[in-house]
Design goal:
By secondary structure, the chain is of the alpha+beta class. The chain contains eleven helices and 14 strands.
Length: 324
């Protein structure tokens, strides 16, 4: 391990070395990233906190993938030969493939139909001598959600994966997503997790999982934003008593049991468990959102969760990600 570190140090600026520290400044993870042609290479990926290893590994993989997207690289290759068992599980669960002694993952930056995403994925796979299954239109929601997870940030618009617009107050958006920014820091447990939960009343019940969620932050100018700020992947919906939901998801949400009680109806509430939230580089204002909805022949109430068309989702996503 030390010999490997010394080699990387000797190569200087080619490699970016990152140490993740706990709130007490204790080192809990160390990884190294660098570039090689169209790839982002990770020669060291170590975590020293067994209790949170899976959570931290998933968050670091998300950070590495996001770096690859920002740099226009379609392949991430983890070449560390001594990953721990639990880190390997997290890497595999995130769609990385064991190939020629490394773990290879793909980063497909496209919000488009299956043919376009398929062509980009095939090109990326070919560059590392791999083949990907051919994508077809009207993929089932389960298969489409899995592909969008493993090819993140790809969005396959002609699949059967539904999309929903979810209104959220700016107070809860600030705590869950860090948008809008406030003087109070987000809880550490939320910041290191790629999964979160959002509670609401079970009425109206419109969402089905898996799906895409588009977050519309409500409020006047004096209260905060009135804009789309990002999107997530909906993995699970649970309907139960506030006590049961709070016990199951309290580590992923910002509401206390009393707040879930207030949202409940007939003794039940909904918990939406979602992951891989993308905060858009450019917010989609309320005025622009209404323009996009009109262009795609859809009326929006913006008072409660509502289903939106794949075309409107794509328009919103491409507005928030101008280079998608």
């Amino acid at each position: 391990y030390m010999a490997r570190v010394r080699v990387l140090l000797a190569e200087g600026r080619r490699w970016n070395r990152v140490v993740l520290r706990s709130p007490k400044s204790e080192p809990i993870a160390f990884y190294v990233v660098g570039t090689s042609d169209t790839e982002l290479v990770v020669p060291i990926f170590r975590i020293r906190m067994p209790r949170l290893e899976n959570t931290i590994a998933r968050q670091l993989l998300s950070i590495v993938r996001d770096q690859a997207r920002r740099e226009g690289r379609s392949v991430v290759r983890i070449t560390d030969p001594s990953l721990s068992k639990y880190t390997e599980i997290a890497v595999r669960d995130n769609g990385f493939i064991r190939h020629r002694g490394s773990w290879t993952g793909f980063v497909i930056s496209a919000c488009a139909d299956s043919a376009t995403v398929d062509a980009l994925a095939a090109e990326a796979a070919q560059s590392v001598d791999l083949r990907m299954p051919t994508l077809r239109p009207h993929l089932s929601p389960v298969i489409a959600a899995e592909l969008e997870r493993t090819l993140w940030p790809a969005k396959i618009i002609d699949s059967d994966l539904p999309s929903y617009l979810i209104p959220i107050r700016h107070t809860w958006s600030a705590e869950l997503f860090g948008v809008p920014q406030t003087l109070m820091p987000r809880p550490n447990r939320l910041g290191i997790s790629r999964e979160h939960v959002y509670y609401r009343s079970p009425r109206p019940r419109v969402e089905q999982a898996p799906a895409r969620l588009v977050w519309y932050v409500t409020g006047s100018r004096t209260e905060g934003l009135a804009a789309i700020i990002g999107c997530s992947r909906l993995d699970e919906i649970s309907c139960d008593t506030p006590a049961v939901l709070y016990q199951a998801y309290r580590h992923l949400g910002v509401w206390q049991r009393e707040e879930i009680n207030r949202a409940a109806s007939s003794g039940k509430a909904l918990a939406l468990r979602f992951a891989d939230t993308e905060v858009f580089p450019r917010r989609v204002t309320l005025r622009r959102l209404r323009q996009l909805a009109a262009e795609n022949r859809q009326r929006l109430a913006l008072r409660s969760p509502e289903k939106i068309s794949a075309e409107l989702f794509a328009a919103i996503y491409q507005e928030g990600h101008p280079h998608a």
